[in-house]
Specification:
CMD-like; single chain; AhpD-like; mainly alpha
């Protein structure tokens, strides 16, 4: 059984990785004006799906919602990815969305 790490649990296990994630990834990369947070969320969900990183997908589904992406848009992105990332990857990502809706 895998555990999804979030900021608090990541900080407990690896304070430096949590610090770098916050400072570099979220306070710098996610704030760059060339892409909106909404676009970054869709790109991130696509990359995680294509790479099979399903443990990270639930957190990013929630973050995408905070960034204005609807569940319907997330489902459509995963459906679209079935043809580029593979059917199993898309179905696994959709399973994460279904789990998050419960």
């Amino acid at each position: 059984m895998s555990t999804t790490l979030h900021r608090d649990t990541l900080a407990q296990l690896s304070p430096k990785l949590a610090e770098l994630s916050q400072q570099v990834l979220f306070d710098d990369i996610w704030q760059r004006p060339q892409l909106s947070p909404r676009e970054r969320s869709l790109i991130t969900l696509a990359a995680l799906t294509a790479l099979g990183r399903t443990a990270q997908i639930p957190w990013h589904i929630d973050y995408a919602r905070q960034n204005g992406v609807t569940d319907e848009e997330i489902a459509e992105a995963f459906t679209h990815l079935a043809f580029y990332a593979g059917w199993p990857a898309a179905v696994s990502a959709l399973a994460c969305l279904a789990e998050e809706k419960r």
